[in-house]
Fold this sequence. Notes:
Blueprint: H1 2-5, E1 13-16, H2 24-31, E2 41-46, H3 52-63, E3 68-72, H4 74-85, H5 89-104
Parallel strand pairs: 1-2, 2-3
Amino acid sequence: MFRERYHADFIPIECKNYSADLANEEFNQLASRLGSSTSGLGMLVCRTITDAAAMQRHQVFRWAKGIMLLLFDDEVLTRLVRLKMAGRDADIDGILLEMTERIKFDSVT
C-alpha cells in the first residue's frame, strides 16, 4: 500500500522518548531525510500525544510539501501490536489508511 502511494521502498522511523509533544525540530529532522529520491513516507514514534491538533498541523504542513509523516504514540502502537497478534492485518491497514487520510484531508478526529 505505502510503497506505491508514497514511493516508499524503505520507511525511515525515528523514535523520540519525550514526555512532551514533539516540536517542529523533530518533524523537520525526519522530513529532511525524505524526498523524491529517497522516500515520501516517514514515521515518528513518541511516548504520548497531548495536543493532537498541533501534531496534525505539523503533519499537514509536511504533506503540503509532498511528505507523509505518520505519528505513533504508545497507545496506537499497543493497538497495532494487539491487532497483529490477533492476525487482523486488514484492521491494521484500515488504521494506517485512516491516519493518512486524516492528514491529506486535514480533519482531526
